[in-house]
Design brief:
- The chain is mainly α.
- Helices cover 56% and strands 8% of the residues.
- It is elongated.
- The N and C termini lie far apart (71 Å).
- The mean pLDDT is 77.
């Protein structure tokens, strides 16, 4: 798992498609197999199989560095928004998996649905306590305007 700098909600629309293509291309260049991956609005989950000739940190440095350069080449306007060549946040989360990679793949696939469900549970709808007063004030203003218009005629 890794994220854009400051966890900005940068992974949307056309850029999401381009980031997916860039990550697949970068992995293919290093001979890394993507078993499962999902791009969330503010982070990326990937389950990959890295050849033993690369260390995890070596591969992640390559992936984040190369992909940032490629993203800025494809979307030049982002460098003004996110700073020159600093698209990804520092660091990443890695966990090695042995026999339970199917469980991790399922988690990655279902992560977005879970996040949406949790957001729905935590959303509270608040009512503006001043709403009635504001409506009444607006009605009085409208009535006052009508009276002044009638007096002028």
């Amino acid at each position: 798992m890794f994220a854009p700098k400051y966890r900005r909600l940068a992974i949307y629309g056309k850029i999401k498609v381009d980031i997916g293509k860039i990550l697949r291309k970068s992995c293919k260049q290093k001979g890394v197999e993507i078993i499962e991956g999902h791009l969330m609005p503010d982070h990326i989950h990937m389950l990959v199989s890295i050849p033993p000739k690369y260390s995890i940190s070596q591969f992640m440095g390559y992936l984040k560095g190369k992909s940032a350069l490629m993203i800025y080449d494809k979307h030049a306007n982002l460098k003004y928004k996110y700073g020159n060549r600093h698209f990804w946040a520092e660091g990443y989360y890695v966990s090695t998996v042995g026999l339970n990679d199917a469980t991790v793949a399922k988690y990655i696939r279902e992560q977005e649905r879970h996040d949406i469900a949790m957001d729905k549970l935590s959303v509270k709808e608040y009512q503006n306590p001043f709403e009635d007063r504001e409506i009444e004030k607006e009605k009085k203003k409208q009535e006052k305007k009508k009276k002044t218009v009638k007096k002028e005629k």
